[in-house]
Design a protein that fits this description.
Blueprint: H1 2-26, E1 29-35, H2 42-61, E2 70-76, H3 81-93, E3 99-102, H4 106-111, H5 113-119, E4 123-125, E5 140-142, H6 147-160, E6 165-171, H7 174-186, E7 193-200, H8 208-215, E8 222-226, H9 231-241, E9 248-250, H10 257-263, E10 271-274, H11 290-304, H12 310-329, H13 334-342, E11 347-348, E12 353-354, E13 370-375, E14 378-381
Parallel strand pairs: 1-2, 1-3, 3-4, 4-5, 6-7, 6-8, 8-9
Antiparallel strand pairs: 10-13, 11-12, 13-14
Keywords: Amino-acid transport, Signal, Transport
Signal peptide: 1-25
InterPro entries: BCAA_transport, Leu-bd, Leu_Ile_Val-bd, Peripla_BP_I
Length: 383
Amino acid sequence: MILKRVGGAVLALALCLSTLSTVRADDSIKIGAFLSLTGVMSLMGDPEKKALDLLVEQINAEGGVLGRKINLIVYDDGSDPEKAVSFVRRLIDHDQVDLVIGGSGTPTSLAVLGQIERERIPYLSMGGGGAIVDPVRKWVFKVPQTDRMAAEKVLADLKKRGLTRIALLSENGGFGKSGRDQTLARAADHGIEIIADETYSPRDADVTPQLTKIRSTPGVQALFVFGTGNGPAVVTKNIRQIGLGLPVYQSHGVASRDFLRLVGGAADGMRLPGGALSAPEQLPDSNPRKALLIGFKSAYEARTHTDINMMAGHSYDALMLAVGAIRRAGTTDKAAVRDALEATANFPGTAGMVTFSATDHLGLGPDAFHMLEIQKGAFTIID
């Protein structure tokens, strides 16, 4: 009888220790991410994943957050909005994450907004489209500069150069469509007339028919290409192949050295709005974010043996905003973290200084963009 009691006690203790071990093993802060590691937006998803891995490793090595390690759970949505929805469902229901980061692009980010709001989970998007946070949704925040800000930066530079009759060539969905809409809506305010308006598919292998139409448009003075991923690289090569001699602007969707490698010297002379992370060494020493940007750039390039870009910066901003909110909340309670995110003020990010509010879930000012020019295969800050 005594042996049975002792055996039962030992078994109970073993079960108790096993349970405690499980709790400790699972006592991590679970951050879920859905990224476009493959597909047409892989130029964005790949550096985002590399940056997240680097940052999570650094944070965990320093003791984690609230004394708990971060468990990063990542799925590849293949640049497919339907897969993005499926993986966000898995992150919430199966993985039971505390917070979601992702949407490498606008289409995948927009696809999950209803789901995020219904499930009431904090979400930091890395898509560029302004529609992600306009109108403001309670649980949705965004880190990259918007297509509206990019359009206004380009339109202002065109006006400054006296280029007032332009052609617009945009991707026919998501990021490109939103950018086209923003450009058309604001061109007149800057004294710019859109006299040619063409679109292309991000999967097009050749865009010369649209470019030929633009070249034959009487009076066109410049071309503005609004797209991201691999599409703008095809457009850029076609521009040089047909000898289109117009000044060309790209969007912030190509502010990546991967893009420059794809197009070689074909992009020289083109301008685009971009963040300071594209060339942080060129910032004046008085810039309060210069040291942060150079430090992150150095760590990223040493770890990955690849060049830094704005997309890696999106991961920095999203993860560090999340970590800061969790620390201030003192918990991973979703409502408390959401409230702490919305109270973020003067956060020094790679995109700019971020201050969220109940009416602004982007939190960036117009100074978040610089005007870049591609010179000898590199980005140069000219404004």
